[in-house]
Each structure stands twice: as structure tokens, then as C-alpha cells.
Amino acid sequence: MTTYSLDFWTRRSNELKPEGLAFVDGRFVPSLSGRTYENRNPATNSAINHIADCDDSDVDLAVAAARRAFEAGVWSRRSPTERKRILLRVADLIERDLETIALLESMDMGKPVQVAHDYELPDLVEFVRWFAESADKLYDEIAPAAPGNLAMIRREPIGVVAAVVPWNFPLDMAVWKCIPALATGNSIILKPAEQSPLTALHLAKLMSEAGVPDGVFNVLTGYGPSVGQPLGLHMDVDCLAFTGSTEVGKKFMGFSAQSNMKLVWLECGGKSPNLIFEDTADLDAAAELAARVHYNQGEICSSPTRLIVQNSIKDAFIEKVMAHSRAYAPGNPLDPKTLMGAMVDAEHCSRVMSFIERGRQEANLVLGGNRISIGASSNFIEPTIFDCVTQKHSIARDEIFGPVLSVLSFDTEEEAVAMANDTIYGLMASVFTSNLSRAHRMSEVLRAGTVAVNTVDLISPLVPFGGMRQSGNGRDNSLHAFEKYTQLKTTWIKF
Ligand code: NAP
Ligand code: MG
After folding, report:
1. What are the chain's domains?
2. How remote is the CA of residue 440 from the centroid of ligand 1, in Å?
3. Among all residues, which ones are annotated catalytic?
């Protein structure tokens, strides 16, 4: 058993030589322009490597490779069982490289390496296996047509799928899109966020090693406007699967309308409510879960960022949440004891701080609120809690995407529901209560893709994940995820 220590992770990270080239048609290649950009570790402010800075000419090349592979049938016409076998190999290879991948993720976007290694990546391997296993378990349909008629309803892969993903869980978000799309026979162009390209490029290596044919899986690194936009506007991309902000999600709908009406699937922002009723059985456990808002530096779309507490228990409950929140004191992401690492970059850190400054004008700061320096980096923010927030305040309305909790309060269930639903988003909602009828009532009336009772933000490959309203459309995970990457074909046979 490896002994994980700060020394171990530091030594391993110094030994790593991460890939920085794009991956097109089975080969690592520089951008056609030859341009690169510098990729920094937000926890140290030092440069990790240089990354291919792709643009629309690289997009044309990758789309052509993906299309050629699709039409040639090297993957799209393989049997689902063969695709399953190869994708299961991908899962095994991710498991083999767990330490490297955890480090790449941590160095690239600041998350605690041990948390990624012990929890997030083993989970991710199970997601890959689940999608892979499903490849040969998706049955088609035969319609109950009149005698002498056979009406078959079959799923076909859509063709060339582009996946544009964010930096908060870089490999998870890539896998949620790419593995279901690959399992159903599509070709892919993955565009990771500019801040976090390293694990997408490592995944490309593993795809090749597992036997995914050239051209089927491509990774284009670079910026949103120069890679994401040309993918969104491309006439030969059939489907665009996006996870990121609501603002950019709306752009992709426009790109589709301006080009070829490609399917656009969006997983966007959130401002999720967490309702705590006075009849909650275990307030300590509820407080510990409420403090999870600081997990992953608060950079989680489905995080319970609005804590809506019944007045009768509010003060005592906030004390408990504050105590649990202190465990998330920021630290060196390579230290195995660290629960909260660095914000993804200085720009995002400043953006979160500007929300905190506004919060100071609007409400009562009861915990944290400061940007702090560790070593050569000042990209760290203390776990922060505001009390006496109302739905009028910006810190109750806008997605902050940092370790910031806004506490609101209510007297009646009706007030609580009205507050919870007073948002443009609808990704996730939580309710803590020991009243079974109330739990069911809440799960009916809360407008969110997932309602969690006596827990927060539970995510699994077994169930759909996605949002209502401006949190997006379509669903990742579960068998429903495959609907996004297939289209239905009807065949009539008269005999
Ligand atoms: P973002 O700015 O929307 O970026 C997401 C992706 O879109 C990145 O790859 C980005 O590229 C690209 N992009 C940016 N501007 C673009 C443009 N004009 N045209 C085409 N592509 C463009 O989001 P983020 O800051 O990376 O991530 C945070 C957001 O993601 C939050 O809003 C969060 O709620 C959301 N999120 C949602 C989910 C979910 O499942 N619902 C999960 C995780 C995160 P570059 O960054 O390289 O420029
Ligand atoms: Mg980076």
C-alpha cells in the first residue's frame, strides 16, 4: 500500500511531464497556427506546460477526421459488445493511472489531490463502467402494427458529437458526455476548458491504448471563442453537448440556429436551495451536509448554496454549519489533509471576491470572507457564510461558484417553497425533515431536476442528472443519457 504524504505527491508532481498537444485523428499534434498558451497551476502560480491554442482551422480538421471515421464505420458499425469491451478497457486504464490523473486534475485546477484520488476518480471509473456496460443492453422496439406489417423503431448514432466542458470536474464532465456518446457509436470532439486540458489529453492516450480507432475520439484544446464557437457553428457537427454557464449555454442555442440546427444539450448553472425544517431528525448531520457547499472550493453547479432554515432553529443550526465549515480551511492541494484547495485561477478568484464584497453590503458576514495567500499563490478563499440574506440580495440570486453560503430563513412551509423556487435555475434542491408527507410534498413542488431528502447533491450513474428552467435541458447519466446521442429511425416492412 502506498503511503500518501505531502512529500509523495510533491515528488510525483515534479516528475510529471503532462501532454500539451491537441489530439486529432489518433495523433498528438500542435495547433495548425503553431500557437500555444501557458497553463498554470493556480495553487502555486507556476507554469505547468504549454497547450496547443487551437482555432477554427483545427476544428475543421478534427471534424473532418471524426466524420471520416464515422462514415468508415470503424466504430459506428462495430457491434455494441465490441464497443463495450473497449470502453471497459478505458475504465481499467483510468484505474491503473489513478494517481497520475488525480495529480493532473489537482495541478490543473487546484482541487485537493487526495480527495480526487480517494473519492472522485474511483467514482468516475464506475460511471465509465456503467455507460460501457449499457452499450449492448439498449434494446430497440417493434411497434404493434397490423398483420402483414413490421414497423421497427431503431436507435442510430447521431454522427459527429462535440462536447464542450468546464474546469470544475474536468474529467468527470468529459466522461459524462463522451462515454455514452461513444457507447452508442458516435465520433467525438472534446473541448476541455482552457484552464483544465490535462486530463482530457491523458484520456486521449488511454482511448488509443484501449483500442478506440483513430478519428473517433479527438481533443481540441484552446479557448471558448476560438474552439467552442466554431464547433457550435460547424455545419458538419450533428450534436453539441455542453456543460458550463447559462450565459454560454444560451450562445450555443444561437450557434445552432445560425448553422445546421444541430442538437444542443445543456447542463448549466444553479443556485440550489437547501430547506431545513425544525422537525429534522439529526441536525448535526444536516449541518455537516450543509457545509459541503465548500466542497471542491464551492465550484459545483449543483451545490446547495442557499440554506433556507426555519426560524425556530436558525441560530443554533448556523452555529453547527459554521463549525463544520471551518474544516474547509484552504490549504496546499497536495497535502493529503487539505479539504479545500485553490480557486481555478486568479480571474475567477477575483470574481468570487466581488460577490463577497457585495454580500458584505447586503447581509451579515458570519464566517470567512477573505482571500488568502499560500506560498506564491493568492488564489485561495476562506469558507464564507452570510446570514440574514433575502431573495432580493445578489448573493441569493446569482451563481457565485465559490465557497460562499447564503442563509435565508422562514416560518411556514409555504414561505420556504416560495423562496426555494424563486430562481431562474432548477438543477438540484434539498429538504431536511422527518415528516414523510412533507418530504413527498416537497419533492412534488420543488422545481429542480433532482430533489434530495435528508441528504444533499447525490449523484450516481443510475439516475438522470440535469436541470429545469435555465439550468439546462436533457439529462446526463442513466439510460436516458443515451437518448441525447441517438436518433430514432422507423423502418416499415410490408409482407
Ligand atoms: P463557461 O465559461 O460557460 O465555460 C464552459 C465551456 O464553454 C468552456 O470549455 C469554455 O471554454 C467554453 N466557452 C466559453 N465561452 C465560450 C464561447 N463564447 N463560445 C463557445 N464556448 C465557450 O463555464 P465555466 O466557468 O468553465 O464553468 C462554470 C460554470 O459551469 C458554472 O456556471 C457551473 O454552474 C457550470 N456547470 C454546470 C454543470 C451542470 O452539470 N449543470 C456542471 C459543472 C459546471 P474556455 O473556458 O476554454 O474559454
Ligand atoms: Mg490549469
Report:
1. 7-268 (3.40.605.10), 273-462 (3.40.309.10)
2. 34
3. 267
